[in-house]
Structures are given as structure tokens and as C-alpha cells.
Design a protein that fits this description.
heterodimer; A: about 425 residues; alpha+beta; Diaminopimelate Epimerase, Chain A, domain 1; 2 domains; five-stranded mixed beta sheet; four-stranded antiparallel beta sheet; rod-shaped; B: about 200 residues; mainly alpha; de novo design (two linked rop proteins); about 75% helix
Chain lengths: ~425, ~200
């Protein structure tokens, strides 16, 4: 007898955090609803309790917990139970949880109901059950019998209720997504606004401020051919010829001077024969015979050699002066139809033109092949521990689980 | 892109301010609704207690025949408390203080009543009385929990409303800080055993 007493008093008080609440498990042989860390209840008692709890979960969706300990901290049964209930989320999202509690040394007992259980297991019923069914046994120190009697009473109350296996809580939509959307929408609107503004500005005539100003012609003009530099009159002639074509609705010849890479000109579709001839005449002088050779050479990876032999470099597109045979300029003619204001600007070519040059020369074509995207093996995603009612494992609801607001009844015996 | 005239920079800044204002306002509305719900729960919990009191009074009356004074006091305070309800919009420091004081008076009266019942063993053996006593205790527990949760929702709301740029908006749109429950003076539990 003395030994028993000293053993009991040696048990440390359990707090909500230290209490070994049974974990989720889907193995039906390991499922338990009883927390018996001080080994006060016998295995047989635990089994009987488990059976009833299990059937409660299966048939009514009620997930309960039975706690039998020697001492608790906080000492008050209600305070302890509510801490445990809310810490571990007993009862899951539907809040159909309850805790049957007895502390043998502190002599406290409680039946605590979760938020969703309060309608079915009212405070009055908890009061009746705990006082009349459980306390008489507890006074005789028959812990297991008391808990069992109480649990049976709870079961009979619950089995009368058909509503228990009820609705799932609706998931609350997160409002935070809305804010992000608002900012993105605003940003997008801002960008569009800026774009519209820029476009409008570009079309504004400097003289008459109306917005019909636009580029009428972008023309590559030859300023220096193989015979020598063209003087201003001849350049102007070219421009006027193009403008006349434009006015008359004829197609403006632009391809003539577009590319001056003799090797590449063979690759440009419809490359002007005149251009090729001009190129070829020099090619022959350098040993490259026909445009076929040139095209082969063009496909040769080492374009630089050929280009160097032809006396041009990649950069000559940008800087016409380096080209021996032909120098070109790209001229943009902008005109405002309202006031007749006209402006010519030397365009250095656009990025597109530069890229076109690169592509047609073939040198860097290989660079732009898309590298084969290697499909990396995706890491195996960890299967999150899921709680499922069907498999027979019980769940306390890991995050956002059950909530207790103080229902139930209990006291000291 | 061309040169940005002041007009467009101004419009862009205005757009940013408007978007910020919208999202801040929405945030305040969300928090306020949480506070409203929590307050509703508080009132429901107090109401529960008030619903229990008539039954309690009836049962005690049957046994404690000479305790008229205490019984009537409880009934009167209970009726006064039932009439005092605060809607969420009119929650200010003063109304909250009044409300809390009212409920505390009722608690005090109830504990005096429960103290009296200690002297009547037959009453204490009455099943209905025992149930009521447990229910009352449960209600007190519920009230405590619900007050804690209310305070927990008010605190982030108050922070949101008082933070600097947002405080300009709250003035315009009428979001005021809400009061919290203060700890009761005296003992925690309403039911005391006194001899």
C-alpha cells in the first residue's frame, strides 16, 4: 500500500505540452484514444475505452480523448483540459471533440466538449454524466470503471443524435490574394498608360503639335558605291525617287542596299542580282568564284575568315564607313501631314536590323539554337501525413483543428 | 518613352495612392468584422448566463425561503443587464466600462446567492440544482474564453487602425479603436464559497 502511494506521488504533474497525446496513425492496431502516461489504467480498461471511442468516431464522427493522469499543471481540471484541447486541436475541424478527464491525485474530473459538440452533449448532460456515472467510481478509486461508465453514457447520448455526422466547415478563402491582384492590376494599368503616353508623344509633330506625325519612310541609301562617294545631289536623288515611289503607291525598293555582305546576300531571298554582281566582282578578285561557293562558305562556321577576305566585318552594318565597297546610311523620314513638317534623321538601325544582319550572315545562327531543355527529375514531394476517416486512423486535426470554448462540466470529488 | 510631363507623374502617384487606400481600407474592414463577430460571441455568452438565472432563482426559492433579499437582488440585476446591450458600432471605452460593470455587479450578486445555497444541504442534493450549478460554471468558463478571444481580435484591429499612414484613412472612414475587456477586480471565479 505504501509503495503504491509513493509511486503515485512520484509521478510528475503533466502540462498540456508535456502530455503524451496519442499521435495520428492509420494502423488500426495502434490506434488509441486513451492517454494513460502514468499507467493508472490497465490494458484491458484501455482496450474497452478504445473500443467505444473507435465506434464513436466511425459512426458519429466524434473524436474524443480520454485522459487519466495523477497530477496536472495547471491543477484545475477545466484549465488543464481546455489547454490540451486547444493545443492539440482535438476533434478536428468539425469540432466534434470531447475530453474525458480524471486526475487521481488532484482528484479532479471533467468532461469538456468542443464547440461543435455543445449542442449534442450539453453542459447539463455533462454535469449529470460526470456526477452520477463517473464520480461514484472515482470515489472508490476505480478509475477505469468510472471512465468507462461515463463514456458509455456519452455514447448513448450521442447515438441518439443523428445530426452529428454533419456538414464540413466551409474553408475560408484567403483575402490576401485580393490585395496582390489589386496591385498587379494597378501596375499593369500604369504600364499601359505609360505606353499609351509614349506612343502619343512619338506621334506628336514638333511644329504643329498635332498627333499625326509619323515616319513615312525608312530607307537605306547608298552613299558610297564602288565607284566613289556619291555627292549630296545623288543621295537626294535616291531619296526623292523613293518618296516618289511611295507617293505613287509603287513598292519602294529597299532590299538593294539592305545587306552588303556578299556571302550572306546569297542567303537573303530575292537578293538583288546587282548586289550579287557587285559582290561577286570583288569575290572573283579574291578567289571566291560563284555565289554557290559563297553560300557554302557562308554556311561555314568560320564566317569571320570569309568576311575578312571580302573586306568587311560584322560591324560594318553599324559603321558603314568600314565597308570598302559600299557605304550606306539608313535614313528615317518623318513627316506631319497637317503642317507638312518634315524631318530626316539618321537611324542607326534598330535592334531588329542588327539581329537580321546577324541571322542572315549565318555566323551566329548556331548560337540561337535553343539548347535542349534537360528535364530534371523532380524531387519526390513528401506525402503529407493525411488524416482519413475511412482508413480508421483518427486525427486530431493537425493545423486548424478542433476548438474548445469552455463547454462541459466537472469538478473535484 | 519621351519626357514625362508632371501631369502623368501626378496621375501615376495618385493611382498608387488610390490602390494603397483601397487595400488598407479592405484590411481594416476585415479586421473590424472579426471584432464584430467576437463581440457577438461575448454577448451570446453573457446572454446564456442571464437565461440560466430565472431557473436558478426558482429552485433556490423552493428551499431557501428566507432569502428574499438576495433573490430579488439577483433578479433585478439580471433584468437590468438583459436590457443593456451594446451594438458593435457603439462600442467605446465608456460603454464598455458600463457594460463590464453591469455584468460584474451581476456576478457579485450571483456569487452571494451561491454562497447562501451552501447552507441548505437539501438544495445541494437536488439534481436540478446541481445541474444548474454546473451549467453556470460552464457559462462562466465560456464567458472567460470568449472575452479572451474578443481581446485577441481587438488588438490587431487597433494596431491596424492606429498605424501611421492608415490612421489618416481611419479618420476619414470612421474606424475607431475598440475597447478591450479589462481584468476584473477581485477574484477570477464568480462563484465563491463563503461562510
Amino acid at each position: 500500500m505504501l509503495m503504491l502511494v509513493s509511486l503515485a506521488s512520484m509521478a510528475k504533474p503533466w502540462t498540456a505540452k508535456t502530455l503524451p497525446v496519442p499521435k495520428n496513425t492509420t494502423d488500426s492496431t495502434l490506434v488509441t484514444y486513451v492517454c494513460n502516461p502514468d499507467r493508472i489504467l490497465s490494458t484491458a480498461e484501455v482496450d474497452s475505452l478504445d473500443q467505444i471511442m473507435f465506434s464513436l468516431e466511425k459512426t458519429q464522427g466524434v473524436r474524443g480523448l480520454v485522459i487519466c493522469v495523477a497530477e496536472t499543471d495547471p491543477d484545475d481540471p477545466y484549465d488543464f483540459c481546455i489547454e490540451v484541447g486547444n493545443t492539440y486541436g482535438i476533434g478536428g475541424k468539425q469540432n466534434t471533440g470531447f475530453i474525458l478527464f480524471v486526475s487521481t491525485v488532484s482528484r479532479g474530473y471533467y468532461i469538456l466538449t468542443g464547440d461543435g459538440m455543445e449542442k449534442f452533449l450539453t453542459d447539463a448532460q455533462c454535469s449529470r454524466i460526470s456526477r452520477n456515472e463517473m464520480v461514484p467510481y472515482f470515489k472508490e478509486e476505480q478509475w477505469g470503471a468510472g471512465l468507462l461508465a461515463g463514456l458509455r453514457a456519452v455514447q448513448s447520448v450521442c447515438s441518439g443524435e443523428t445530426e452529428l455526422l454533419a456538414e464540413d466547415d466551409e474553408a475560408n478563402d484567403d483575402e490576401e490574394g485580393g490585395n496582390l491582384l489589386l496591385w498587379l492590376g494597378g501596375g499593369l494599368a500604369g504600364l499601359i498608360g505609360l505606353g499609351a503616353y509614349g506612343a502619343r508623344k512619338a506621334r506628336q509633330c514638333p511644329q504643329c503639335k498635332k498627333t499625326n506625325y509619323r515616319k513615312v519612310l525608312r530607307q537605306t541609301v547608298l552613299v558610297h558605291d564602288e565607284e566613289g562617294a556619291l555627292d549630296d545631289e545623288e543621295i537626294e536623288e535616291q531619296i526623292q525617287a523613293c518618296l516618289a515611289d511611295l507617293k505613287a503607291g509603287r513598292k519602294v525598293e529597299t532590299k538593294k542596299f539592305r545587306t552588303f555582305n556578299p556571302a550572306a546576300s546569297a542567303m537573303v531571298e530575292g537578293g538583288d542580282a546587282a548586289t550579287n554582281q557587285i559582290g561577286n566582282s570583288q569575290d572573283e578578285a579574291n578567289g571566291l568564284t560563284s555565289s554557290d561557293e559563297a553560300s557554302k562558305a557562308a554556311q561555314d562556321k568560320d564566317m569571320d575568315k570569309i568576311m575578312k577576305s571580302a573586306g568587311i566585318s560584322m560591324h560594318s552594318f553599324e559603321n558603314p564607313k568600314k565597308h570598302k565597297y559600299k557605304k550606306v546610311r539608313v535614313i528615317d523620314i518623318n513627316r506631319c501631314p497637317d503642317c507638312g513638317y518634315e524631318h530626316r534623321a539618321e537611324s542607326k538601325g534598330t535592334t531588329y536590323d542588327y539581329m537580321l544582319g546577324i541571322f542572315t550572315s549565318g555566323t551566329f545562327g548556331a548560337v540561337y539554337h535553343s539548347s535542349e531543355s534537360s528535364s530534371s527529375s523532380s524531387s519526390r514531394s513528401h506525402r503529407s501525413r493525411s488524416s482519413s476517416r475511412s482508413s480508421g486512423g483518427h486525427s486530431w486535426g493537425s493545423s486548424g483543428g478542433g476548438h474548445f470554448s469552455g463547454g462541459g462540466a466537472g469538478g473535484r470529488f | 518613352m519621351g519626357l514625362l510631363k508632371n501631369k502623368w507623374v501626378g496621375i501615376g502617384a495618385l493611382a498608387i495612392i488610390v490602390i494603397w487606400a483601397i487595400s488598407t481600407y479592405n484590411g481594416m474592414v476585415t479586421e473590424e468584422e472579426k471584432v464584430n463577430k467576437a463581440w457577438g460571441d461575448v454577448e451570446a455568452a453573457y446572454q446564456r448566463r442571464m437565461d440560466l438565472i430565472p431557473n436558478l432563482v426558482n429552485i433556490v426559492k423552493g428551499y431557501a425561503t428566507h432569502e428574499e433579499k438576495t433573490l430579488t437582488e439577483v433578479v433585478e440585476l439580471r433584468n437590468k443587464a438583459t436590457q443593456m446591450t451594446i451594438s458593435v458600432d457603439s462600442l467605446t471605452e465608456e460603454t464598455m466600462e458600463q457594460y463590464q460593470k453591469m455584468q460584474e455587479q451581476l456576478s457579485g450578486s450571483l456569487s452571494r446567492l451561491m454562497a447562501i445555497t451552501e447552507a441548505y444541504p437539501e438544495l445541494k442534493a437536488n439534481e436540478n440544482f446541481l445541474q444548474l450549478q454546473d451549467q453556470l460554471e460552464g457559462t462562466e468558463n465560456r464567458i472567460n474564453e470568449v472575452r479572451k478571444e474578443y481581446n485577441a481580435t481587438v488588438q490587431p484591429y487597433n494596431v491596424k487602425v492606429r498605424k501611421f499612414p492608415a490612421s489618416l484613412l481611419s479618420g476619414i472612414f470612421g474606424f475607431s479603436t475598440k475597447p478591450m475587456f479589462k481584468a476584473q477586480e477581485g477574484a477570477d471565479k464568480a462563484v465563491e464559497v463563503k461562510f
